[in-house]
Amino acid sequence: MPLLLGPGVVALSFVLWGLLPLYYQFLPTINMWELLSHRVIWSVVLLALLMHLAARPVPWATLRAEPRQLLLILCAGPVMSISWCMFTWCLTTGQVLATSLAFFMTPLFNIVLAVLFLKERLTPQKHLAVALALAGLAYMLFQYGELPWFSLIMGGNFAVYGLIKKKIHYPTDQSLYLEALVQLPLALLFVFWLTLSGHPSLFLDGSLGDRLMLMGSAPATLIPVGLFCYGMIRTRLSTVGLLQYIEPSLAFLLAVFWFGEHPDPVKEVGFMFVWAGLLVSLLPLHRLRRRALSRPPQ
After folding, report:
1. What confidence tens digit (pLDDT) does each residue in 173-212 have?
2. Which long-range contacts (CB under 8 A, 24 or more apart) does 120-128 make?
3. Would you say 80 and 179 are in contact if contact means Cβ atoms under 8 Å apart?
4. What b-and-e string marks burial along 56-71, b requiring 16 or more CB atoms within 10 Å of the CB?
5. b/e map of 156-170 (b: 16 or more CB within 10 Å)?
6. In angstroms, rounded to a whole number, what is the distance separating the alpha carbons of residues 110 and 245?
7. For residues 77 and 183, what is the distance between their CA atoms, to the nearest angstrom?
8. If both were cysteines, with which of 50, 120, 180, 194 could 43 make a disulfide (CB 3.0 to 4.6 Å apart)?
9. 165 alpha-carbon distance from chain centroid
């Protein structure tokens, strides 16, 4: 069971991420930057409350003595913000299929970073899974005749975030709190400007339900991020990269069967290759589970 704890938690985080468009569907029309600002503000409030209740304050003295860890945490926040901005723009403009394509790119970045920076070695199953995923993406690139720069930037940012989190050894709640704290001044500044400028504000002008939905965007995004960060340090980055296909696969299914978006035949063929790679990548985890269950107790 401990062997599967990390990959299992990571897989659950991607399931929740894949279902996140359902939450955004019930949000009324809102300025994207207001949504992002309130997500940061209420994330700081929620995480501070949780750490206070758990009596787990941020070890400021230890952080000052570890400038490398502090620098990694300070970098993680802005890197994640870029991905969240692009992700939120897709969801608030009804382009769920675009998020699916973007996150199909991320696992490949994860695997490359795992091999280059963490010196991980790929199993035969992972080699085959990567080959199938690359075949699907290569087919889409060949048919479209251009690189999907939006997807590359979005996927690359999230992969870099995963690599940074792999090197941070502080507890998940503390590191997420510090990441949000870094972004808090800009979030407060935008909300303050929105109030003074007289522009429509969902938090000020909306109903109580609208305010609660806006505040709820913090836990709705923190829970999958927290699970991802917890499982990330207990899972090989190459495995994380392959499990990450769960999120865009769910987003693709939601886009087609729930939101009524219509993928073209090129994407359908490409996604079939990627899904085949995902199924192949799960084989080592299944064998690992059977081996753990069949091992006699010590």
Report:
1. 888 899 899 889 999 999 889 888 877 777 777 788 888 8
2. 120/236, 120/237, 120/238, 122/238, 123/284, 125/280, 125/281, 125/283, 125/284, 126/238, 126/239, 126/242, 126/281, 126/284, 128/277, 128/280
3. yes
4. eebeeeeeeeeeebbe
5. bbbbbbbbbbbebeb
6. 11
7. 7
8. 180
9. 12
